[in-house]
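The data layer described in this paper is built around a simple, fixed record for each protein. We quote a single record here, exactly as it is kept in our systems:
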Amino acid sequence: MQKANDKKEILELLKMVQSGAISPEDAILRLQTAPFEDLGFANIDYHRNLRQGSGEIIFGEGKTKEQIANIVLNMLCKNVDNIIITRTSQETADFLIKQKIGVEYHLVAKIAIVNRNKTIKLLGSVVIVSAGTSDIPVCEEAAITAETLGSQVTRLYDVGVAGIRRLLSKYETLAKARVIVAVAGMEGALASVVGGLVSCPVIAVPTSIGYGSNFEGLSALLAMLNSCANGISVVNIDNGFGAGFIANRINKIESIK
């Protein structure tokens, strides 16, 4: 949503299209390249939702709690909802609360959500699968992201290939999924196994979980990139947010069908 002034500008633009003063294509271009706000330390992109279907996400890591609060307050002034702050701390969430900002904080995922739109209907079926319990923080980052953006999420945790019957016992759930996020560290074999079982897209997420030669997730990343199973795409190490975001997009496309 936009401020009243912004809505008025959009309405005027639509009237210009109606009268033939500008073409629909030019109007779309204006909307797509329209405003951002310069805070000095950040440029808030208010029209990302028009271009991409979801608003700007705040990457919390490396930002001070004061900077995050400033960004959030400016977004709230524009009536932005579903503000997602990734890789942020309980300390920052508590600071936002002190600033009278309502926050929903997920400790395991390290995600804060401000002004959550609870009217969004959860659609489709995104299944998040983890190889081990140690991978759950990355899984939750993916799950909370996809849920906040409007996807129905099912979690299947600690079903790695070291005890493959655990995974096979969940086959019916996997087979009904529209998209699966497979999260694994160590040698990252889970993604290949899942990819060989299902017909839907699989998003593989390597994690930094593992011993010495795991190289902080590099071995899992390379294994997933070299998977012999078809239909698998791979995001970066520990990038649960990226996996959840693209899983939601794929799920929404399938839901429209």
Summary: The mean pLDDT is 88. The chain has two domains: 35-114, 123-256. The two ends are 26 Å apart (CA to CA). Residues 13 and 27 are 7 Å apart (CA to CA).
